[in-house]
Input
Amino acid sequence: MKIGILTGGGDCPGLNPVIRAVVRKALCEGYEVIGLKNGWKGLLESDFINLDLNAVSGILPKGGTILGTSRTNPYKKEGGLEKAKENFKKLKLDALVVVGGEDTLGVASRLIKDGITVIVGVPKTIDNDLSCTDYTFGFDTAINTAMECIDRLHTTAESHHRIIVVEVMGRHAGWIALESGIAGGADVVLIPEYPIDMDEVCVLIKNRHQRGKTFSIIVVAEGAQFKNKDLILQEEKLDEFGHVRLGGIGENLAREIEKRTGFETRVSVLGHIQRGGSPSAFDRILGTRFGVKAVELIKAKKFGRMVALSGNKIIDVSLEEAVKSLKTVDNELYDMAKVFFG
Ligand code: F6P
Output
């Protein structure tokens, strides 16, 4: 049995633990593993490395991915599907482990229908927005990083009597903003699921000032939008999956807050800092459990499945189902967080 593995889309802490676990478990079963480089690009270009025990030794605590990643979409390349099928055959692969988020796994799901059927998915993303799994790995590390930044920003905001807007990642879902905001004691958290009402935000800030708190920390997800569309700043550049390159909401928000409240307001954009660094224990363990389960699924010939976390159990779910819609923040959790706003 020869297994291929690739990591696609935005990197995140925990990818290397998955690669290591897939290789270790596969070798236990007497299987051979190759790593396709840079996501789907590696399959299109037949660019790979052999993954043996030595290749995965020492990678557990390392952030990023030893295989590299890209946002290459085979369906956006001329003859991409044919090339992918041809190389899959040429490489004599019996199974493919695809580690990715909505886009990478979306391609996997399409490829299954288009003839590469022997695929197993592993859900990754710091955004935690994949359906059918309680958590994706990478998220825990990202919110801990963001929380630490929020803690640091608190002390400087308080000393200078400033408002600090902290822009975090989260394209369609506000999980990072909400959970790092709850953990870091943010005074307002703004997320893509609920359009920003500037009047409400300013009232919350002014109320704090009235009770003697001359600083505030506002956490905003990069994908959040204003209720008033005139305030939106939109970047035109799109990637191969049609996503706009986000960033800028924090600046706009800070400008509006300062204009409306008169309080000095600064912005801190955490950006890719949230994606870098060593995975937390939780992400190392989750990635490891996912990797082992992926090989178990291959052994059982359960293809078209995605490994997932349900409570504390590792299960498998339909890959097609998992990529149908995104998991966004629900009212209940956001309402709970609101108790601490202002
Ligand atoms: O991987 C998800 C993500 O981190 C999003 O939160 C963010 O919008 C995007 O990736 C950023 O992508 P890039 O690294 O291509 O700028």
The chain has two domains: 2-138+279-322, 143-275. The pocket of 6-O-phosphono-beta-D-fructofuranose is lined by residues 9-10, 101, 125-127, 169-171, 222, 246, 275 (CB under 6 Å). The first strand starts at residue 2 and ends at 7.
